[in-house]
Design a protein that fits this description.
Layout: H1 20-34, E1 38-44, E2 57-62, H2 68-76, E3 94-99, E4 103-107, H3 118-134, E5 138-146, H4 153-165, E6 169-174, H5 181-196, E7 206-207, H6 216-226
Parallel strand pairs: 2-4, 2-5, 5-6, 6-7
Antiparallel strand pairs: 1-3, 3-4
The structure holds guanosine-5'-triphosphate and magnesium ion.
Guanosine-5'-triphosphate (GTP) binds next to helix 2.
Length: 229
């Protein structure tokens, strides 16, 4: 299904197919899901430490510093649920958050962080990819791309890996507050083309800012749509 949101908040790569009333109901479902209690319940540093599979999981992945932890906070309306930092490489474990007994949000370590010690990098990135490949309860990966930065080799590698593992992922732009409207429109077109060229990528690309809240209601609604009742 394809959704449209009013500009500039919640700009998406696709057009409108919903009436105003349908759009309002769609957004309300997202609001309700994310208004529920959300609590951190698990951190895993190795595959053996993963929590037993339970409810459906949504994983937030992307390059170091792209804004994964900030987005988890913005979605849940909590300032400091997931730890964020201006220094890349802040999140080094898989952090699991339970949302109202319906959904598990997984804040992942970033990839493509050149400065990390080699062993540390192998450990946490290996864990991330093993989790993504092998988790049966994973509903979808939300793969974040910084709206200000060109797509990097590490992003392409992550997409290829998910394609090969047939794990559905959705591309979401972050930090759209930091780019001009024309630059954002160009970026959305570029990333939508990228999504179309990857078999496991969802067609629709969302544009978000954890700072201003742009696109957050639409992302909540999109995620609510995926969540079993
Ligand atoms: N302008 C702007 N900056 C943001 C936004 N979201 C996050 N940031 C900044 O980006 C930096 C990284 O944010 P994090 O949420 O820690 O990023 P991360 O992807 O979790 O990083 P790692 O855990 O290190 O992989 C911080 O300085 C945030 O303040 C946004 O929407 N707009
Ligand atoms: Mg983080």
């Amino acid at each position: 299904m394809v959704h449209h949101a009013p500009d500039p908040t919640g700009q998406t790569s696709t057009g409108t197919h919903l009436t105003a009333a349908e759009q309002a109901a769609w957004l309300e479902a997202g609001r309700l899901l994310f208004a529920q209690e959300c609590r951190f319940f698990y951190a895993a540093q190795s595959l053996e430490q993963l929590p037993p599979t339970g409810g459906p999981e949504l994983a937030f992945a992307g390059r170091s510093n792209v804004g994964k932890s900030s987005l988890v906070n913005a979605l849940t309306g909590r300032r400091a649920l997931a730890r964020t930092s201006g220094q890349p490489g802040r999140t080094r474990q898989l952090n699991f958050f339970e949302l109202g007994n319906r959904l598990v949000l997984v804040d992942m370590p970033g990839y493509g962080y050149a400065e990390a010690a080699k062993q540390v990098k192998q450990d946490w990135q290996g864990l991330m990819f093993e989790y993504l490949r092998g988790r049966p309860t994973l509903l979808r990966v939300i793969l974040l791309l910084d709206a200000r930065i060109d797509i990097k080799e590490a992003d392409r590698a992550a997409m290829d890996l998910l394609d090969r593992a047939a794990v559905t992922y959705q591309l979401v732009l972050t930090k759209v507050d930091a780019v001009s409207q024309p630059a954002l429109t160009r970026k959305l077109a570029e990333v939508a083309a990228l999504a179309r060229s990857h078999p496991a990528a969802h067609m629709e690309v969302l544009a978000t800012s954890s700072n201003t809240g742009a696109g957050i209601a639409e992302l909540r609604a999109t995620l609510a749509e995926l969540t079993p009742a």
